[in-house]
Every structure is written in C-alpha cells, then in structure tokens.
Amino acid sequence: MMTMSTEQYFSTELLAWYRLQKRDLPWRQNRDPYRIWVSEIMLQQTRVDTVIPYYLRFMEKFPTVRALAEAPEEEVLKCWEGLGYYSRARNLQAGARTVADLYDGIIPDDTASVSGLKGVGPYTTGAIMSIAFNRPEPAVDGNVMRVLSRYFCLEEDIARPATRVSIEKLAASLIPEGEAGDFNQALMELGALVCTPKSPGCLTCPVMEHCAARIAGRELELPVKTKAKPPRVELRASVIVTGRGEQEGKVLVRQRPDSGLLAGMWELPHILLPDGGKMWFPESERERNSEATEQLARLVDEEAGVLIRPHGIREDADHLFSHIHWKMRIYEADTGKADDAVEPLAAAEAPAPYHVSSPYRWIGKEDMGELPFPNLFLRILNDYWEGKRQR
DNA sequence: AAATCGGGGAC
DNA sequence: GTCCCAGATTT
C-alpha cells in the first residue's frame, strides 16, 4: 500500500467522520445558495443553537432573494432583533438587492462576484462557493484556525489578520478533489463538536493519531491568541417618558442613526454623562441625578419638542457590548402641560406640544412588534408594558 | 494592525 | 468573572 502523508490522512479521515457525524441543520436540507448565504451571515460570531430559530423565521418571511430585496429594511431588522451585529442584516439585504438587480435574482457561481456582495468577506465567500457550488475555496473561521493550529502545531497568533491568510493557504491545500463543500464543513464541524476551545475531545477525534499538538501534549496551549482589551465604561442616563392626553399610555422612543452602533435600531432617549469616576453614587447622588435629568429634559425638548417632568428613577441597568460597557440609569418622566401648576423642566421656548420630529415616536405596547429594538431596550420596555414596578 | 460592530452560552 | 462563537468593515 502506498504511504499516505499526514495531510492526506487528515483530509480522508475527517471527511469520513463528517459523513457519519454531521448534524442535521436547517441550512443543510439542500444547496440553495440563498439559504447557504443567509445561514453563513447569521452564523458570523454566533452559535448554531442561537441561529436556528432566527434562521427558520427569516427564511419563512424572506424565502427568496427577491423577497428579501423587496422588503422594507425595518422588517428585516425586526427579524434580526436580538441577534446582534445588526449591520449584518442591512448588508445582507443590500447584497440581496445587488443580486436581484445585477444577477437576475440568481447568486452567481463566481468567486469574485460573491466576494463583492456587501457583508461577504473572505470566510463567507469561501463558505458560499464551497458549500453551495462545491468550488475549492478555503473557508477559514475560528473553528478552522483552532483545528489546524492544533493538528499542525502552529504557533502563529490567530488574532493577527496575517495568520488567517496563511491558514487559508494551508486549508486550501488540504481540500480533497471535488469535495470542497463537505471538507470545509467537516473542518468546522470538528471544531464545534470535538476540537473545542476548552476541553478538546481528543479521545473521540478522527485525526488524533497524527495531531501534532496532541502528540506534543500541547492541545490546551493552542491556538495562541492575544487577549482582547476590556470594554470601556460609559455612564449613561435614559428616560421613559409617559404621554398624556393624545399620547396616554404611550412612551417616547427614537431611532438611532443609520451608521455606527446599533444602526437603525430604536431605543429610549439617552445621553452620555461625563465620567465622574464611573459611579452612580459618589457622595452627591442628588446633584448627579438633577444634572442628568436636566440634560435629558433639554435633549427631549430640543430633539422631540416634548416638555418633560422627571419624577423618579426606574432602574439601573448594565449592558455589555464587545467594546463598551454601558452603565445606564433609567429615569421616569411625565409630559408637562401648558396649564400645569408645576413648571416643567426645560420650558424654554415652548414649541408645539406633542410635535415629534421624525426620529422620535410615541408608541404603545401594541407597537413593539413594528419597530426593532436592541435587547437592552427591548427588556426595559417589555418590563414596563407588563406593569413591573422597579425599585 | 487596531478598532468597531451584539449577544449569549459554556465554564 | 472569562472566553469565544461558521467575521466584516472601517480607520
């Protein structure tokens, strides 16, 4: 028998293992490039179990490229609500519109064209080309970098962009003839099910015999990855404004700008406060509260033309992003009326009452289903509608 | 090369 | 608490 290289052994054994062990996932029902595309975008930095319910709802609502291309952006974001990295949804729809307009609604079997779609980077290009079209392109994600770092005992820092490039070349060289789709998925499946970050299951690994890291007893040291910086702390003040009269029982919300953090999503109005030691309770909590509520009142007056009277603290909430840690205090406020005995705060020029410029809206509980909210505000508002008392 | 983009599951 | 997940884009 001909001797087999460790590379040939790896690809052959991995592929055989995958065909026996692969999970039955919704996007593996067929090779429809659109279904593969949507799944790969959703799976970016997101676990399979988290994606599945979103994927099923999304495919039901937007079953084809054209359905997605023709939908209002707000509906797409609403379908993405809670999944995070919302630019993925906006880019995906932009890509769908490109395919609808330029490629007659058919995703082209062409690497350069697929790579040119918004939100489709090196990994997703390889995933779509290999899984949907069986083209021999590498698809290197975190799983693949971990698996190959261990099997070949590579010590390059996988946090460095250059490392992904070099591992792509290695991964491409390992693709068996005519088996790109299954091989790439097999690499990722092994990383997800066996060659896991914490306690890899070397005893059940199909390629353990020739795994360099395991042989060297170094599987727990690899891959090498520099640690991320801790998120910066931001102190924020937000407000639930409850309406009166025309707006009885409604709450004032606003839409975020169409770029940057949580782009296009809806939220409660809030402001960034100066550091102040990043604590809500220095000696002078009262001054801090009055300064925050005054600024909020000024903001809501100027941006929405609504006069408010803050009357208490609803809750404090922490929300963690990858790079920012929001420490937010949520106040409660009423809307002032012209004939009120109590003078509302920020009663400056007294603009037209209840006039709300476009990024602001009064909404009731029944409107929550219309607008996309990030998780923090979704939770706060749902608690509010359920009548939960805070503090 | 580094920062910016969410949220949650596993430990 | 930590790590990191079927990463892409911007600076």
What does this structure look like?
The chain is of the alpha+beta class and about 400 residues long. It has 2 domains: about 5-215, Orthogonal Bundle (Endonuclease III, domain 1); about 230-385, Nucleoside Triphosphate Pyrophosphohydrolase (Alpha-Beta Complex). Helices cover about 40% and strands about 15% of the residues. The protein has helices at about 5-20, 35-40, 50-60, 65-70, 75-80, 85-100, 110-115, 120-135, 140-150, 160-175, 180-195, 210-215, 285-305, 375-385; strands at about 230-240, 250-255, 265, 270, 310-320, 325-335, 360-365. A 4-stranded mixed β-sheet has the order 4-1-6-5. A 3-stranded antiparallel β-sheet has the order 3-2-7, with no helix packed on it. Strand 5 and strand 6 (about 325-335) form a beta hairpin. Helix 8 (about 120-135) crosses helix 11 (about 180-195). Mean pLDDT is about 90; it is low at about 340-355. The protein binds a DNA duplex (11 and 11 nucleotides) through helix 2, helix 3, helix 6, helix 8 and helix 9. One of its GO terms (molecular function) is purine-specific mismatch base pair DNA N-glycosylase activity.
Which features characterize this protein?
single chain, 391 residues, alpha+beta, Endonuclease III, domain 1, Nucleoside Triphosphate Pyrophosphohydrolase, three-stranded antiparallel sheet, 14 helices, elongated, DNA-binding, glycosidase, NUDIX_hydrolase-like_dom_sf, iron-sulfur
